[in-house]
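sorry for the late reply, my laptop died twice this morning and i had to redo everyting from scratch. anyway the thing you sent over, i finally got around to it. pasting the sequence first so we're on the same page, its 380 residues, then the predicted structure underneath. double check i copied it right bc i was rushing
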Amino acid sequence: MSLTGTPFFVTAIVLAVIAVLLPLALWSRVRGPAVARGVARLLMVGFAQVTALVVVFVAVNNSNGLYDSWDDLLGTGDHVTAATDLGKDGTGGVRLADLPRSRSVFKPATDPVLGEGVRVTNLSGQVSGVQGEVYVWLPPQYDEPAYRNTKFPVVELLPGYPGSAKAWFGTLKVHEQLRPMMESGEVAPFILVAPRTTLLGRVDTGCANIPGRVNADSWLSVDVRKMVTDTFRATQRPEGWAVAGYSAGGHCAAKLAVAHPDRYRAGVSMSGYNDPAAEKASLAALDEELRRANDPLHLLRSAPTPPRTSLLVSGARGDGFESGLALRAAAQPPTLVDVVEIGGAHDTGEWKRQVPDIFFWLTRQLAYERGTTPSASAGH
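ok and here's the structure:
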C-alpha cells in the first residue's frame, strides 16, 4: 500500500477510530489476573496513541511532500547504480552530443493529489549513474498550433530534504497556480520538471557529485536536462533554463545556477542556505573540500570570471535572508542577485504563496537576459 496514497490514509483513520472505541467497549470487560488486565488495557491505550500518531504523520507527510515512498521513509532506497569520478564539469569528458538520444516515455501520473496534466517517467541517467522518476508538466500552449515550432523554456523544481519530487505539484500546486497566468500571458509558458532528489537512504546528497557515493549534480544538470531536451520541444540554450527550490532544494538551486551558467541562466532559492553543513544530513558537508565546492557563495568568490547567471533569494531573517545578502555582496556583473525578505515560516504554505512572484521574476529575468519580451522569451 502506497505511503502517500488515499487508501493508506483512510486505513490509518479507520484504525485510529477503532483504537478509540476499543477501550470504551472492552475496558471493564477485560478478565483475568490484575497483571493481565493491566497489560491488556495498556496495550489498548498504546494502540490508540500509535494510530493517532500515524494519522498525524500521514497528514503532515501528504501536506508537505516529505517522503514519497516506504523506502524513502525507512531509508532503504538506493537510486545510484554507479558513481564514477566525472570531473569538474560533471560529464566525465563525454560529449553530450555523442550520447544516444534520451527520449523517454511519459505516462499520466496516477496520484490524484498531483492534479491534471502531470506526467511521469523513470529515467536511467546515462552520465550520472542515477535512476529515478521525473515528473513533467507542459504549459497550455504546448499543443496549440501557433506554438508547433516553439522550443519552450524550462524550470527544474527541487524540494527540500526530506522531500518528494511530487511536492511542487502536489503541495505547492505550482501548475494550478501558473496555468491561468500562462494563458493570460502574465508568465512565460515554462515546461515544469520535478526530478527525484532523494537518491540515497537517510542522507541529503546536497546536489553534489561525490565519487564512489553519488553523482547528484550530474543527474540534475546533465541527465535530466538532456532527457527533457530530447523528449520535448524544450530549448537547449541556457538562456531558457532555470532551477528553483526551497530549503535544501533552494541551496541546490543557487549552487547549480552558479556552478553551471552554461546550463542555467537563473536560480531561485526560497529559505535556502549557502554552506552545505547547514543540513546535518548533507553528504556535501563531509569534508572542507566538498563544502567549498558546493557552496554557492564560495563559488562566486572564487570564480575566475563572474558567472552569467541571475539569482532570486527569498528568506526570513535567520532563515535564508542573510545567505542572500552574502551572495549579493559577492556578486559582480554579469552575475545578478535579487534578495527578498519575507516574514513567513519555513514551510510549504509560505513557499506556495511565493510561486506567482517567482515566476513573474523568472519571466522577466530570462527575457532580460535574452533582450526580448516575456512572451517572446519562450519562442526560441
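Residues 368-380 have pLDDT under 50 and may be disordered.
thats about all i looked at so far, will dig more tmrw
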